[in-house]
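We were asked to recover a plausible sequence for a given structure. The inputs and outputs are reproduced exactly as logged, with field labels preserved.

PROBLEM: sequence recovery
POSITIONS: 345
GIVEN STRUCTURE:
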C-alpha cells in the first residue's frame, strides 16, 4: 500500500473513456490530453503479422480508402473489445502519448465501461490495459460517470436519471446516494444510427454508401422528429443496379424514417426502467427530469422526442460528448469516492 502511494506521486494517473467511437484520456492535474477516434490502421506483413501504422484521427481518415494490405480497424464494437490485440496497441499508444515521454513508473488507470458488460468482458478490458502498461486498473460504470460528469448531485438521497447515448451503447441509469439504483444497457448508439442510414439509403435509393457517409448524413441532417423546415443534402455513392457512381439528394425526413427503429429501442429501454422504479424515486424523476449525455444526444430534437413519449422533462447536459470522460476524470481527484463506485472484479 505504501509503495503504491509512493508510485502515485511519481506517475501520471489517467482516466480513460474507452468509447466505441472515441477515446478520451484525462491526466490528473492536466484535464483532457487526448480526444481521438477509437480507430487503428495496420499493415499486413508477408509473415501475416499486423504492423501498426496510425492511431486515432489519422487512422479514421483511412476508413474505406485503404489498399488491400492496409486495414483501418475499430477494435471496440458495441462497447465491447472485438479485437484484443489491437485494443492493447491502441491503449498503449494513448498512454505513451498522454505522458509525452517514456515513463519509468507505470500509471494507475481508471476506465469507464458500459453497465451491461459481463465479468469476462470486464476482465478483458482490465487485462488489455495492464498489458498496455498500466500498474493498476479500476473500472467505473458509464451511467455513474455520466451522472458525475453532467453535474448531478449523486451524493444526495434523491433520484437522478441519466441516459448516455454513446457510439456503441445506450446506458440508462438512476443514481442516488452514490449508487446505481436502476440501470439498463442496450447495444444501440451512434454506430447503429449510422448503419441504419446506410441500410435505408441502400433499400430506398439502391445506392451504396460507406460508413463515413452514414455518419456525415446523421450529423448534417439527422433528426429524431419531423422538422418544420426540412433539411437536405447531396450524397454520393455507387448505384447497386448499374454499378455506376451516382449523386442523389436526401432529406431529414428520410433520415428520420431511417432512425425510427433504433429510436424505438431506446424508448422501450427507457420505459422498462421507468416501469420498475420505486414510487419515491419516481417522484424525484418527475421533479428533476432526465439528463441526456453522449454524442447521440446531439441528434436534432431527441430531447423533445423522448419528452413527448414519456411525458417527463428531458435536458441535454452541458458538453454531452465529454460528460462520461469528465465524470471518470473526477475520480482521479477523489479516489475515496472511486473505491465506493468502482466495479467489483
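RECOVERED SEQUENCE:
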Amino acid at each position: 500500500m505504501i509503495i503504491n502511494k509512493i508510485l502515485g506521486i511519481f506517475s501520471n494517473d489517467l482516466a480513460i473513456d474507452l468509447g466505441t467511437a472515441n477515446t478520451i484520456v484525462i491526466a490528473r492535474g492536466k484535464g483532457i490530453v487526448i480526444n481521438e477516434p477509437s480507430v487503428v490502421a495496420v499493415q499486413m506483413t508477408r509473415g501475416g503479422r499486423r504492423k501498426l501504422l496510425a492511431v486515432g484521427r489519422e487512422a479514421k481518415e483511412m476508413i474505406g480508402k485503404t489498399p488491400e494490405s492496409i486495414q483501418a480497424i475499430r477494435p471496440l464494437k458495441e462497447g465491447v473489445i472485438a479485437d484484443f490485440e489491437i485494443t492493447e496497441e491502441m491503449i498503449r499508444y494513448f498512454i505513451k502519448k498522454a505522458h509525452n515521454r517514456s515513463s519509468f513508473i507505470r500509471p494507475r488507470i481508471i476506465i469507464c465501461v458500459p453497465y451491461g458488460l459481463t465479468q469476462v468482458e470486464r476482465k478483458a478490458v482490465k487485462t488489455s490495459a495492464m498489458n498496455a502498461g498500466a500498474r493498476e486498473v479500476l473500472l467505473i460504470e458509464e451511467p455513474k460517470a455520466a451522472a458525475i460528469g453532467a453535474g448531478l448531485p449523486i451524493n444526495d438521497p434523491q433520484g437522478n436519471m441519466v441516459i448516455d447515448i454513446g457510439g456503441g451503447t445506450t446506458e440508462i441509469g438512476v443514481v442516488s446516494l452514490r449508487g446505481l439504483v436502476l440501470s439498463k444497457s442496450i447495444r444501440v448508439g451512434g454506430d447503429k444510427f449510422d448503419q441504419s442510414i446506410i441500410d435505408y439509403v441502400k433499400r430506398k435509393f439502391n445506392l451504396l454508401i460507406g460508413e463515413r457517409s452514414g455518419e456525415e448524413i446523421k450529423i448534417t441532417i439527422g433528426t429524431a422528429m419531423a422538422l418544420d423546415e426540412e433539411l437536405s443534402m447531396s450524397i454520393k455513392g455507387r448505384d447497386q443496379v448499374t454499378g455506376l457512381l451516382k449523386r442523389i439528394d436526401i432529406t431529414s425526413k428520410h433520415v428520420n424514417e431511417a432512425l425510427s427503429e433504433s429510436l424505438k429501442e431506446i424508448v422501450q429501454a427507457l420505459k422498462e426502467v421507468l416501469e420498475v422504479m420505486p414510487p419515491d424515486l419516481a417522484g424525484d424523476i418527475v421533479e428533476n427530469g432526465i439528463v441526456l449525455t453522449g454524442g447521440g444526444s446531439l441528434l436534432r430534437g431527441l430531447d423533445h422526442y423522448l419528452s413527448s413519449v414519456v411525458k417527463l422533462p428531458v435536458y441535454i447536459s452541458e458538453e454531452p460528448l465529454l460528460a462520461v470522460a469528465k465524470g471518470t476524470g473526477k475520480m482521479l481527484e477523489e479516489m475515496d469516492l472511486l473505491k465506493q463506485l468502482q466495479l467489483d472484479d
